[in-house]
Write a structure and sequence with these properties.
By secondary structure, this protein is of the alpha/beta class. The protein folds into 2 domains: 128 residues, NAD(P)-binding Rossmann-like Domain (Rossmann fold, 3-Layer(aba) Sandwich), CATH 3.40.50.720; 103 residues, Rossmann fold (3-Layer(aba) Sandwich), CATH 3.40.50. 38% of the residues lie in helices and 16% in strands. The protein has 11 helices and 11 strands. Helix 2 links the parallel strand 4 and strand 5. 43% of the residues are buried.
């Protein structure tokens, strides 16, 4: 039995579907099982990573884990104590190995989960994706309202990865023991700036869209109204660090899945309706 956490998220839903296609028995946890809207074959049970004791681990051997909450060591201990042997963790490419201090709160949180899992004695695989293509959805309200996207760091670079590629890599790691002990950096097939991303969206919509750069401080003031300050600073700090620095593209998705990774343009085509 494979337990999928974050099963109703943008990646988790594809992980569930991929495991079902592999003929796996899947259990998913949700704070609201009745509204999860997963396939009928999936056993959906209540559970919350913020309360490790609520996790339904009976009969579970393998876990797809998202780094949610601030109790990584308790979660890892709960999994190990229940007899879980293998964990595939959705981490981030921001984690720096052997660093005394991680570059921001986001990297620090994921590094703590990685450390906790390694210390637990379970077999593990860490997925470290670059920026998700889906982050561009934050611009949707502005694009629906007009032709200008106002945001900081238009010249920040990344290699945006499709959520389906992250999920495909996760599925392979969950069912294939060749990836035990691997730290897999996942990227899309091309590096581009946020201005470039907006250009692809404009082309798909047949519109002329402009990226108007605004000070990060103005965005920070709005974001801290609904997100922790340390997370906001980490997000904005990461963008600032990548200005003028094209991202390194990896071949990991192809190496693991045997197919080419999906492009940002393909992601936009699939999500075009979200911007209309």
């Amino acid at each position: 039995m494979i337990l999928v956490t974050g099963a109703t998220g943008s990646v988790g839903r594809h992980v569930v579907d991929g495991l079902l296609k592999e003929g796996q028995f899947v259990r998913a946890i949700s704070r609201n099982p009745e509204s999860a809207k997963l396939a009928a074959e999936v056993e959906v049970l209540p559970g919350d990573l913020s309360s490790p004791g609520t996790l339904p681990l009976d009969g579970v051997s393998t876990v797809y884990l998202v780094a949610m909450g601030d109790r990584p060591y308790e979660i890892s201990q709960a999994l190990a104590d229940a007899g879980v042997t293998t964990v595939v963790l959705l981490s981030t490419s921001e984690v720096l190995d052997d660093a005394e201090e991680q570059p921001g709160a986001i990297a620090a949180r994921h590094a703590a989960f990685e450390d906790a899992i390694q210390r637990s004695g379970m077999l593990w695989t860490f997925l470290r994706p670059n920026e998700f293509a889906g982050n561009a959805l934050q611009w949707a309200p502005q694009i629906q309202a007009g032709d200008v996207v106002r945001a900081p760091y238009g010249d920040a670079w990344s290699a945006p990865i499709h959520e389906r590629d992250v999920a495909a890599a996760a599925v392979r790691a969950l069912v294939d023991d060749r990836f035990h002990g691997a730290k897999l950096v996942l990227t899309g097939p091309e590096t581009m700036t946020h201005r470039d991303q907006l250009g692809h969206i404009a082309t798909a919509l047949g519109r002329s869209l402009e990226f108007e750069e605004i000070p990060a401080a103005a965005v920070r003031a709005k974001m801290t109204a609904y997100a922790p300050v340390e997370i906001v600073d980490a997000l904005l700090g990461r963008l600032a660090e990548t200005v003028g620095k094209p991202a390194t593209v990896t071949t990991t998705v192809h190496n693991i899945t045997g197919r080419r990774p999906l492009t940002f343009r393909e992601w936009v085509t699939e999500h075009e309706s979200d911007f209309r």
